[in-house]
From TrEMBL, chains A, B:
Catalytic function, reaction form: (2R)-O-phospho-3-sulfolactate + H2O = (2R)-3-sulfolactate + phosphate
The organism's taxonomic lineage, starting at the top: Bacteria, Pseudomonadati, Bacteroidota, Chitinophagia, Chitinophagales
A matching Pfam family: 2-ph_phosp
Necessary cofactors: Mg(2+)
Gene3D superfamilies, per database record: ComB-like (3.90.1560.10)
Gene name of the record: comB
Enzyme Commission (EC) number: 3.1.3.71
Entry-linked HAMAP family: ComB (MF_00490)
Keywords: Hydrolase, Magnesium
Protein name per Swiss-Prot or TrEMBL: Probable 2-phosphosulfolactate phosphatase
Organism the protein comes from: Chitinophaga costaii
Single GO term (MF): sulfopyruvate decarboxylase activity
Family note: Belongs to the ComB family.
Length: 242, 242
């Protein structure tokens, strides 16, 4: 790509809009802030060898057994039948996850990841690895699509906020000709001084706080607690090392 | 509906997301700020008897001939072949449009209108009739879906800004459990002091200003210049009178 032309930076606010974007020539950042992509970077940051994202519980069990791996995933806020662990980043401290493989099934995040499989490259993003994502994207000098996992295809607040945080941080290195990017950024700027309070009207905040998960939400909205870059290689997310 | 339970207020940011919402029990507000719904309320405000929205140019010509009506519509920023007038609100002053029927074809707005045909009721909204829309919605005490026409299914800035303006104005009368509504409102609040300047990064601003349409944009972003309520009755938009 010519140095004089900056690569494109776009935001896709819902998987139901993904077909409107050209993923083939872009790095796609999968964003599922509450909580899949926050948990993925946390597990890798704490030494997990890899995280294998899978679409459903049966596949999670099958691969988990074949590899002797940790199986994890929730449905309706509870650990899914047949799996061992849930979606909380706090379940994956170093003394548990180091050196291990985690097989994870989530609904929205995994769905988007599979939909974007033709992308030039796939990474995952969330506030705990905000800086790692931004630094990587700036260094690659490629088109970028920030893909929000959303909630059952409905646009959600937390993924949009993260997309906005990335846009705000790296926009000078890119051409931004995408209203979703501008909307995300303006919402992030409105909320950035206290994301936790800003999130309290959001649907997912109400859903998770009903399960007593305020600490999870707070962690998932805090930048750079697990600053590693999960990169999809052969359908496995591994920590990228330069 | 019980007086103790407030009706629902939601925002659908793109026609490609409309299937996620239950339109049957809602008043749907069709929003196509640049420029279809701004032009519709302007024509009715200036005395047009009705505006008939149609899907394509051929239908526009056919109905226009049958009714002896004004035919209007643009494709790629120019008056479409076979039609008489364009999409600019300034083409429909009182001394031209009063007492007449306008048959209008637009791409995004008309598409959404037809998609939402099962709604309990359909009205159209834009900044020139902001107060009329808000007053009507508050008075009806029904569920409301603010439907953004967007641009070829991509979320756009101007329709989101108008949705946010409505949310901000009437939210106390409704239950707002919709992140798209919160995002729209926060973006509107960020831009409201100078919507014209705020819009200058948006894709449609660049597209229209390339055609020298800054005056159109300025009018379409100014509240209450044509404060009438277009209501769809038998596939025709007519001014609602209490």
């Amino acid at each position: 790509m010519s140095e004089s032309i900056k690569p494109r930076l776009e935001v896709c606010m819902s998987p139901a809009l993904l077909h409107l974007y050209d993923v083939k020539d872009s790095i796609v950042v999968i964003i599922d802030v509450l909580r899949a992509t926050s948990t993925i970077c946390t597990a890798l940051y704490n030494g997990a060898v890899r995280v294998i994202p899978v679409a459903d519980v049966a596949e999670c069990v099958r691969i988990g057994q074949a590899l002797g791996a940790i199986t994890a995933g929730e449905r309706d806020g509870k650990i899914a039948d047949g799996l061992q662990y849930g979606n909380s980043p706090f379940e994956y401290p170093r003394n548990f996850v180091e050196g291990k493989t985690l097989v994870l099934t989530t609904t929205n995040g995994t769905k988007l990841l599979h939909m974007a499989k033709d992308a030039k490259q796939i990474i995952t993003g969330s506030f705990p690895n905000l800086s790692a994502v931004c630094d990587y994207l700036v260094a690659q000098k490629q088109h970028v699509l920030l893909g929000c996992a959303a909630w059952k295809d409905r646009v959600n607040m937390e993924d949009t906020l993260f997309a906005g945080a990335v846009v705000n941080r790296i926009r000078d290195h890119f051409t931004v000709n995408c209203d979703s990017a501008l909307l995300s950024e303006s919402t992030y700027l409105a909320g950035k001084d206290d994301l936790f309070t800003f999130m309290q009207g959001a649907t997912h905040f109400k859903r998770l706080s009903g399960f007593g998960l305020e600490d999870d939400i707070r962690y998932c909205l805090t930048p750079d607690g697990a600053n590693v870059l999960p990169l999809l290689v052969n359908n496995e997310l591994v920590a990228y090392h330069q």
